[in-house]
Amino acid sequence: MARPRIKDVARHAGVSEKTVSNVLNDYVHVSDRTRRAVQEAIDHLGYRINLAGRHLRSGRTGVIALVVPELDVPYFAELARHVVREAEKRSLTVLIHQSGGDREREKAALAGFGSNFVDGVILSPLALAPDDLRAHTGPPPTVLLGELLNEGADHVAIDNERAAREATEHLLALGRRRILTVGGRDDGCVGTAQARTRGFRLALSGAGLPYHPASLLPVDAFHMSDGAEAVRRVLAVGIRPDALLCLNDQLALGALRALHGYGARVPEDVAVIGFDDVEGGRFSVPSLSTVAPDKEAVARVAVDLLLRRVDEATRSPDEAHDPAPVSPQDRVVAHRLVLRESTEGVAGPVGAW
Prior knowledge:
Layout: H1 6-13, H2 17-24, H3 32-45, H4 51-58, E1 63-68, H5 74-89, E2 93-98, H6 103-110, E3 120-123, H7 130-134, E4 142-145, E5 154-158, H8 160-173, E6 179-182, H9 192-206, E7 216-217, H10 224-236, E8 243-246, H11 249-261, E9 271-275, H12 279-283, E10 289-293, H13 295-313, E11 330-333, E12 335-338
Parallel strand pairs: 1-2, 1-3, 3-4, 4-5, 5-11, 6-7, 6-8, 8-9, 9-10
Antiparallel strand pairs: 10-12
């Protein structure tokens, strides 16, 4: 049996081929009655959209790229899952690329990997410089994630400064005063760690407490081993914090292990809070309090912004009725503080364990 075509669906539903196309593209100006008739014809005939033909006619490939620093970091793995789901809703395929935080790889992603294989790129950069972004004037369209760059391109992130301030204020409300920030950076550069460190400082200032640079525990990377090593380093010289603000959950999980090795009770002796709300933190012992970004919203907004830019890039010259391109968008998505066992159950100041 021949594969059913749009004209077969139109004949069965008693409408024009243009009306069938409008239903398939989810145009709003189609009556519910007509939409139901077309959908019934589609179901009856077993019609399937020819995506390859659609992409060829539109000048698109139907493929977008998601470029993240490391896929074995749970936050990026979970984010990738949400991006794939959002793309599938729009009949798109996602190419996932690991940059390793390498500047040349991130620049290659900006350039579409030197081919026309992808319609657009969602990029979480670690090494790109502002000049790299300014030099990117051609295709493919790009949406940036995180704090490193937010000029000249659409950008999606949570309010990291505010989130860190809220997390620190929670620790302060527990009576904790010897708070260390694992992964903190106060070097004047632009990035997620710097934004979260500013939030930490603002919380201290709001509580009338002094800030000491020694309260920042630098790390080489944001893995569990780095968090464990940073905490072991200060414990080994006799420093006894009563709370740790960890700038991601991987650092926090490593910190929990280091504290356990020194006999510290969490949260009785040391309260611990992280960022990202990854699955491992929900099953750690104790379970991990954390700042939870709305990863689903990050993915949805990023894909929507990217597809709008792709539409602009592939618009034909005679589509003068379409709206003019808008300036780059800076979208902030929601976050929430999730309180679990690593901070809950014990309030008030503690002794120097």
